[in-house]
Fold these 4 entries.
Entry 1:
Amino acid sequence: MENKIVSGTIGFIFFVFVSSCSPDGHPEPYGALPSGAQMEWQHMAYYMFVHFGPNTFTDMEWGSGLEDPAVFNPSELDCLQWVATAKAAGMKGIIITAKHHDGFCLWPSRFSDHTVAQSTWLEGRGDVLKELSSACREYGLKFGIYLSPWDRNHPGYGTAAYNRIFASTLEEVLTSYGPVFEQWFDGACGDLSVSPYDWDLFNRTVREHQPQAVIFSDVGPGCRWVGNETGYAGETNWSTMDTSGYSPGKHAPPFGILNSGQRGGPYWIPAEADVSIRPGWFYSPATDDQLKTVDQLMDIYFGSVGRNANLLLNVPPDRRGRIPAGDSIRLMEFKERRDSLFSVNLAGNARVTVSNQQGGGSRKFRPAGITDNDDRTYWKPADDRTTASFTLHFDRPVTFSVLSLGEYIPLGQRVARFIAEYSDPEDGKWQLFARGTTIGYRRMFRFRQVTSEKVRISILEAGAPPLINRVELY
Ligand code: FUL
């Protein structure tokens, strides 16, 4: 009896598997593909970076490691306030500098004597990671760790023993504070001539203890640095790359490659754009009046999230251990601007026609998959088509100044060139209003207002039949 149930279950699974692969036009995957964890990460789009530590109190960007741990003494540390701020700002998680280059650990590490335990804060009994991870859980935000391999304090740094010390430190953090969505490895380093970093060991340690964590570095493997600290991905931005022969830091790929990825690269390593709301990464009273404006933040948003990257925006807590009011207000203004811009997606009301469609009468891959606001549905032209177009028809003219497009990336990033046109209300001729190269998970454009009853997107070049699952007009 039990056996029957088991074999019945297997039969069912087999049936589902076979039928989902049956020849009804289900597209073949193309090139490197994202993992489930990378897909979840991609959906997050925008999250907070928090630089906090002795530098907050000494007005430094790179501490020497010789700082007296007593300098770390936030008077009103409140991680709930950080998390509430991030949540209200529309961010989906927080990555904290658990240990920056100065080596100071924001948790009482067993592998260092330069930590919160040696500080004056809460008489050495505090643990920032504990407070932050539990605040994240309470608010439903994801928690991420920045841990600098470069350690200007640790006496073992640069010696053969250091790789094990760093791996143990990593293991300690990754096994003490619950799920970690991203492990951030900084490429900046000191003298490694005696003993280079053992990246395989570091990555293995992450995989062992937090298999779902996306590993960030100059070369991934989970996601990659975008090649600058200004928050901009390339207008061309492939999530694929060939990292063979490269490693984080001094042997990283050229900035241009990091910024644009590589068409046909064998690994899926999407870009993450990191930038600070202030001129520096750490808090300084000198930068209180130098916050990025809402216009600058909007430009960065379109330059990162709008170019197939995730945005990691740094908002450093002050010496009280709170996000200053000015920064918090700026985040809310930025959120309000996005909310009002993206409030009504005009494309949702459009009728869609396509130049070509998967044959066989399949209801899957219908043109409506482009506008139905469902990430899992998409339009697919016939198997032999790598160019195709779709048109949005409106009952009456609509006015818009933003276009957003997206590919169904679980089956690979395909589009290499496209144009967007509207039909001129005067003479019905097609007028170009945007042109681009890659699309990927999301590609957004801003332009001067357009009014029309018809909008046409033409894919002019793709490595395989384009699978478009998103078009939005605002
Ligand atoms: C860099 C570091 O050197 C900066 O201090 C900062 O942490 C930035 C995010 O990464 O490599």
Entry 2:
Amino acid sequence: MTQTPISFDSLPLAPAALANLQQLGYLQMTPIQAESLPLALAGHDIIAQAKTGSGKTAAFALPLLHKLRVDAITVQALVLCPTRELADQVTLELRRLARYEANTRILTLVGGIPLRPQLASLEHGAHIVVGTPGRVIDHLERGSLSLDAVATLVLDEADRMLDMGFADEIAAIAKKLPKDRQTLLFSATYPEGIAKISQQLMREPRRVTVQAQHDAGKIRQRFYEVKEAERLHAVSLLLDHFRPASTLAFCNTRQQCRDLVDVLRGQGYSALALHGDLEQRDRDQVLIQFANRSCSVLVATDVAARGLDIAQLEAVINVDTTPDPEVHIHRIGRTGRVDAEGWALSLASLDEMGSIGKIEQLQGVESDWHKLAELTPAAGGKLAAPMITLQIAGGRKEKIRPGDVLGALTGEAGFAAGQIGKIVVNEFSTYVAVDRQIGREALARLSAGKVKGKRVKVRFLEDEAG
Ligand code: ADP
Ligand code: MG
């Protein structure tokens, strides 16, 4: 890791770009940014590897924005992402970083939504396309997208794109791009496939790796030895003892995720599963509930959680030990972010001690073992999520805005603004978090009243989830 913080001012960026970074509160480069930005801005191809949450988006966004010529309305940068969700996250960050150049057009081309609006947007032209490989190929085949002017190709979350079997699609897309371009590849891990694809697509790439080590002071790690039969129950012992407001619990299989959620929900916790079997809509709903604090435990597989920008985690629980020590480091790096401390709690059976040994080797520290018997439920009863989510049928299509929902709840319905949490408006649905205490009342009064002058259908989200 770079020890001394380095300011963005040391980079050859436009003054307006630097001022915007300042406004965004980006005062110093993260280690991966400090390593890769000077090389990328000098025009080199780059393979950059760093854990989730290390600021990789800005590491490719700033160089591609720097090269952009907004007076020419051609697609000059293509960013490929594995999923719609990650493409949306990247687009959001790109828009923030591009704010200093008001005319920058950024277009997201992802699957799972209708083609027609995308075709219309493409006709208006775009400077930057952020997309998933499948949908980008659809557009190339239809002739609705031209990539002749692309100067920068970005492969974001490359390891996950390879996991999802996109290698051929990526190669096919690259064939449509000018040879004389810059290619930037970002990845959390470095599996074999990456070397292969970089040989195919890149020119003398420089490799930058930021060691997967964490600020040891911020993450407090503890290990607990468990017998197989007590593993799932041990998770609730940990939750009752440490009482983290938000927990990400990692399992090695989808089945284990489902089993753990069943056990936790049976005991009254607000827990939801995030795994590869979920439809996109269900995934969105799970993440909305976790982010708005209606769900206090998110149970996930590694693949499902990769790349997600989840803030404010008090604890990570390793329900199963991962055989790959780098994955362990990535998992626990989700807690103890920025200025908060976090717990990383790991359960291991005797069979898993080999993997624990590898983790100790990589971390260079011995594990701090504790006994389940030390765990005592803290006062205050079961740990319930503070909020509950109401789903309103109707969203952007009906021109509902967050203010309309807040207005309906605080106006006619008579609730205090402090009892209302996050409001998310999607295309067809609106999700509002309310204080769990007033859940039923809020449901009743919203159903009886009006939003934007109309009656609306409202229900609790969590009854069907999980
Ligand atoms: P990654 O792609 O490595 O998982 P992201 O690019 O999503 O990470 O960044 C994680 C978070 O850190 C984002 O919320 C982003 O806005 C923030 N961030 C990135 N770079 C900086 C910086 N230099 N200073 C402050 N915050 C930053
Ligand atoms: Mg990322």
Entry 3:
Amino acid sequence: MNRVHIKTYGCQMNERDSEAVAAMLRARGYRIVESEDDCDVLLLNTCSVRDAAEQKAIGKAGYALSRKRHSPDFVLGILGCMAQNRGAELLDRLPDVDLIVGTQKFHRVPDYLDNLRAARDSGVPLGEAIVDTAEEAGSQNTIRDHVEGPERKVCAFVSIQQGCNMDCAFCIVPTTRGDERSRPMDDIVRECEEVVSRGAREVTLLGQIVTSYGRRDYPHTGGVSPFVQLLERVHAIPGLERIRFTSPHPRGFRQDLADAFGRLPKLGEHVHLPVQSGSDRILRAMKRPYTRDRYLEIVASLRAARPSLAFSTDIIVGFPGETDEDFEDTRRLCEAVDYDMAYIFKYSVRTGTPAATMPGQVPAEVREERNRVLLEELGRGSLRRSQALVGTVQEVLVEGADKTGERFMGRTRGNRVTVLEAAPRLVGALVPVEVTRASVSTLYGSLVAAGLQSPLGAASL
Ligand code: SAH
Ligand code: F3S
């Protein structure tokens, strides 16, 4: 009973948590396997942000449990956000689940599996489910330093914070992830140094609202927020070439952060800046503390600091009360910003959030139609912005083999996926690539000898 498969739903935070659980299990002698059909333990690390994500995991769990009929020792665990959100109530739908572990208890998973294994080895049939969704003080410090995994990664993800204290009216994250808690800056810097010493060239700092990092723990110094102080310290790590972060909140973009894009060349030329809506009326109803004009001002201040900056965003269509005019405002805002990419979400009712009981719920067909219109327009914009890069030379960080395994892939400073012919020794290198072809989300190109215009200068090649 030691072959474990972990299936992850949802965001990069979940990916990161799954990696941490995998590392802890490996350290305990479990084997992490690729096949979800051929494993002794299946762990689903779940997402609750939209109903569809929960339904998918519940469907998968129901199907997996049918395996118990012929292999009664098979263990199914549900971890993460849906475990936190629904807890023991999940047992009504899925009575045979063995393990339900919330977002602050990932580090307990190895013990719980050990317990289940010990019970099985002593001949006791697996009995009542273990359910642990309690809060745990300091849990932001238990998810870390997990990098003993077999593969060396060019791009590493480092968690800097957990939870969120904003009260966006639509969002379940404050419930599933709990209070905002920041990891100590020294710990984060140490982990970044470690991943770099193991071969990482790019670090993405992760949290639900990274721009609020450390606001209760560290003072502003000389007008510089704790988040920007952290960026400065990570920027100073030798051998690290690029820094990214996700997700920030518009209200965290003050001048100190815009200035950072001007003076810290390792900051990637891409900002994911969730807007949610382009209508002031809807932003107010969503309890997003900025206006459309303020958002556009932030975009302008960032572009002033770094003209080549690319933006992506999150948008919700069909929030309660959204009219055609509100939607039109969102559409026009997208045109004004000229995003490289956007995640568009149809509003999904999350029980327990303020928006769930707001009047003016928008019919599913309308949400569907607005989603379609916006997707199409944003797709056209992405393609235009991609194609504008054809003929230019971009600095690409080579990450590894592409999907087909025949070529290599990497990303530009602006975070565009780029497929190229390269050699294995170039994995982890920054190379100049001339873009020869572009699709909506991918660039294709070939290595060139020189001609790269990089703010880091030729020395970084
Ligand atoms: N701070 C986190 C937010 C997590 S939720 C982050 O940016 O990663 C990610 C996105 O899901 C949000 O930005 C929002 O656009 C979308 N979302 C959240 N709740 C939603 C809901 N009830 N319905 C539809 N989309 C939602
Ligand atoms: Fe959710 Fe708003 Fe926080 S979208 S994660 S409550 S900033």
Entry 4:
Amino acid sequence: MCGIIGYTGASPALSMVIDSLRKLEYRGYDSAGIALTGKAGEKLIVAKRAGKLSNLESALTSDHADSLSGIGHTRWATHGGPTDENAHPHISSDGKVAVIHNGIIENYIELKAELEKRGHKFSSQTDTESVAHLLSDEFNLSKDLADAMRKVCKRLRGSFTLLAISSDSPEVIVGARRNSPLVVGLGRGENFLASDVSAFIAHTKSALELGQDQVVQVSPDVVLVTDLDGKQVSAKPFEITWDAKAAERGGYTHFMLKEIFEQPKAISETLLGRFSNDSKVICSELASLNLDIDRILILACGTAYHAGLIGKYAIEQWSKIAVDVELASEFRYRKPFLTAKTLVITISQSGETMDTLMAARHAKELGAATLSICNTMGSSIARESDAVFYSHAGPEIAVASTKALLTQIVALKVIALYLAQNNKSLSSAQIAKIIAELLALPNKVEEILETVEPLRAMTRGFKDATSVLFLGRNVGYPAALEGALKLKELAYMHAEGFAGGELKHGPIALIEEGTPVIAILPPASSAISEKMLSNIQEVRARGANVIAIADASTPLDLKHVIRIPSCDELLQSILAIVPLQVFAYEMAVARGNDVDQPRNLAKSVTVE
Ligand code: M6R
């Protein structure tokens, strides 16, 4: 969850590290810190501050300016509150070694007890500080930072990305990873180590993926990767396709707003190359698995889980293959029944969500093949899956997932259609019709975004509501769940999504005079259209203030109606989610919340 950067090269490390930390702040933002090396033997320069990165920046002085190597960290607290002392880097007792860490060291209590017996004094409540002391003890014996890191990693339990520098080897940065991300950015006469590529794409597009339990040593011209026994191993090179500009705010007030408006382009990118001129669906990733599939299990967390719930409807209806969708965090601790004919699809924007990664490993151990829908190249889930369907949303910086979600849903529709083509469960004409519907989505999303101002104004009128309910049926139900999640995450309001049919089984008791209820209506031709209209009447009769999202086929006598373009019923949630995103965004702005970095959250949930 924390952001990690290491830089060594000819440019001033201070500005390089701070610049990268700005790009990484979305990963965690309750404190930040840096450590820079000086000339050999000179003291490390360390600065760290609780709060946002700007607090650290104000604490920096000009004596930080000429270092050529350094490490930086933005934190999402796990062990110990967000204070100056608990901020990373953590420094060894002799002041010679600085360490930053993402993850959790599960055996830190026993390590701490051992280190205290050896005379080390601890100045923080973190699990990470033990690593700094252990590392310096090993470094003092071997005088080799990478060797010390290998020895220390063997003693650690849990998950970690670690970076360390030492005042005795000023140009060297050493990194290690286990179940937590670390990528190497390869520059000319400079190298980077980072928790994700957005930290360095402004400087280089060439990168290396590090494998599990690998240690990397970088200096300006050398990158050396080994396993924990010191055996040299080769890391997998890859080129980053993201544009550095895509990770900038580019004139928008918030990244989230920019990312909402990027959705038409993102969907087009997901669909690029997926259909031949004669309307054949192309999915070489799935074809490469060469599977006889009798069941699909989708695993994901948060918003990505909602993508899975939405995808289930199309996969089952079009391809006639049974689909289950499960929270990765639940699945990983179960003993489920999977066979070699089960295709497990994991969905993750970051490709680093710990629960999803562990669920994918669990599924593999149980004999299933894994396909991931992933947005981030070089990420752990992408690397460990049997095949990867890249969603090509581009960098998503706001903590709230928007364009990642729509592209995940679109990817699932492509997969559903590909399976239907293989199973011959849809005719060529039916497939061609759905392809046309999919290709029309970017323009339809654009149309919604062009007419979004009245929705924004209307949302501000609800800013003092204490609770908002979302109702939907069929694909509208997971869309309702997503609308509620977005609102909780951004507006810090009570919000819940319900299936329309469940209303009378309890949730209707929540309706009071004026309660805002957002109802997602299917096209009028749908079998559930009248059911949703009845639900609207039921909540209105009890005082609800209904906001309906519907296409033009349903006449509505309501004060608040948000019209979306018409489309295939199974694709409609893609369009309905856009106003829900705008609603949550605007509500957060109206309530004065930090839209891009909502409280207590972080973009990549790389710990349990
Ligand atoms: O990176 P992932 O797609 O695996 O992330 C999964 C969830 O943590 C993520 O979707 C989260 O729910 C979002 N912050 C919601 O907006």
